[in-house]
Here is the input.
Amino acid sequence: MMMTIKEIYTISIKDGYEELSLLIEFLVFDKNVVGFDDKQDVLDLYFKPNNEARMKKLLLEYKEKLNGD
Here is the structure.
């Protein structure tokens, strides 16, 4: 059974997966392209090797934005 984004997010916070929780926050709150009720497979696109460099850059910028840098 597939989990929802909310379930994955809750686990990522509880277990200290900071990068995963940051990715979910970025996609849900900043970009509004994923919802908490969506199934986990919507994240597959963002884990593809060809998106790795771009996502790292976007998440670093988002993290800096959150920290006020």
Remarks:
- The chain has a mean pLDDT of 95.
- The helical segments are 5-14, 18-30, 52-67.
- Residues 5-67 form one domain.
- The radius of gyration is 12 Å.
